[in-house]
């Protein structure tokens, strides 16, 4: 997909944070400062989008798996939709410590979620005493909220896509510890030195996030349709 500077401006990708909130490590990706707000260099954004798209398509063509992570309010719904559209997995509520580094324990929680779902489907929960049934349903809802997006993930993901780096530093650290490749949308308050591949862009606007996540999703789907 060819992305133009005009499109990116229209979608607001160039708006960074207030200059006083910046991370100096993002200086190479900032074009200027306007009314106290940093403006991202969209020529670099365009170059990085091409690199990320190429990587996602190639990875998908090799049957790699993808986990989308973004728990801030404006990202949560888009993260779930993008994962669904690209046959991927997601975390959009809260990153549970050890989600990746303690995956074997997480798998036990996922197994519990699936067991409770099965019992609910076959009416097993309805046959329990009312208080016990209510506790089981509450436990299922909590597990579904935090693990629903990864319940069909059989193993650690090959690639993790992160939206909102400052909020998701636990995910960043776990990826780095395990050597899992990450792709991050980096706003002007982020740290490019702890991201593998990245796109310098506005990570707060729903319009900007929808635009970028659609590009990522399309790149993955394209790769999934390439026969190796």
From TrEMBL:
Entry-linked PANTHER family: 30S RIBOSOMAL PROTEIN S2 PROKARYOTIC AND ORGANELLAR, SMALL RIBOSOMAL SUBUNIT PROTEIN US2M
Source organism superkingdom: Eukaryota
Membrane-spanning parts: none
Family listed: Belongs to the universal ribosomal protein uS2 family.
Keywords: Chloroplast, Plastid, Ribonucleoprotein, Ribosomal protein
GO molecular function: structural constituent of ribosome
Cellular component annotations (GO), alphabetically ordered: chloroplast; mitochondrial small ribosomal subunit
NCBIfam families found in the cross-reference section: rpsB_bact
Record protein name field: Small ribosomal subunit protein uS2c
GO biological process: translation
Record CDD domains: RPS2
Intracellular or extracellular location(s): Plastid, Chloroplast
């Amino acid at each position: 997909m060819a992305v133009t500077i005009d499109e990116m401006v229209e979608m607001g990708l160039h708006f960074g944070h207030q200059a006083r909130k910046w991370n100096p490590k993002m200086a190479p990706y900032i074009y200027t400062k306007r009314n106290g707000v940093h403006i991202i260099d969209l020529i670099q954004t365009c170059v990085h989008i091409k690199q990320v798209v190429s990587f996602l398509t190639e990875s998908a063509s090799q049957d790699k798996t993808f986990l989308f992570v973004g728990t801030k309010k404006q990202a949560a719904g888009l993260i779930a939709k993008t994962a669904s559209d690209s046959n991927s997995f997601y975390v959009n509520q809260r990153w549970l410590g050890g989600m990746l580094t303690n995956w074997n324990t997480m798998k036990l929680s996922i197994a519990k979620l699936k067991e409770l779902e099965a019992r609910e489907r076959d009416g097993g929960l309805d046959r329990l005493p009312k208080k016990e049934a209510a506790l089981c349903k509450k436990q299922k809802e909590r597990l579904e909220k935090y693990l629903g997006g990864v319940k069909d993930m059989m193993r650690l993901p090959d690639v993790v896509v992160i939206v909102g780096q400052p909020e998701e530093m636990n995910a960043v650290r776990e990826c780095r510890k395990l050597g899992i490749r990450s792709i991050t949308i980096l706003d002007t308050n982020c740290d490019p030195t702890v991201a593998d591949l990245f796109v310098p862009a506005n990570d707060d606007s729903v319009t900007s996030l929808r635009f970028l996540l659609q590009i990522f999703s399309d790149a993955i789907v394209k790769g999934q349709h390439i026969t190796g």
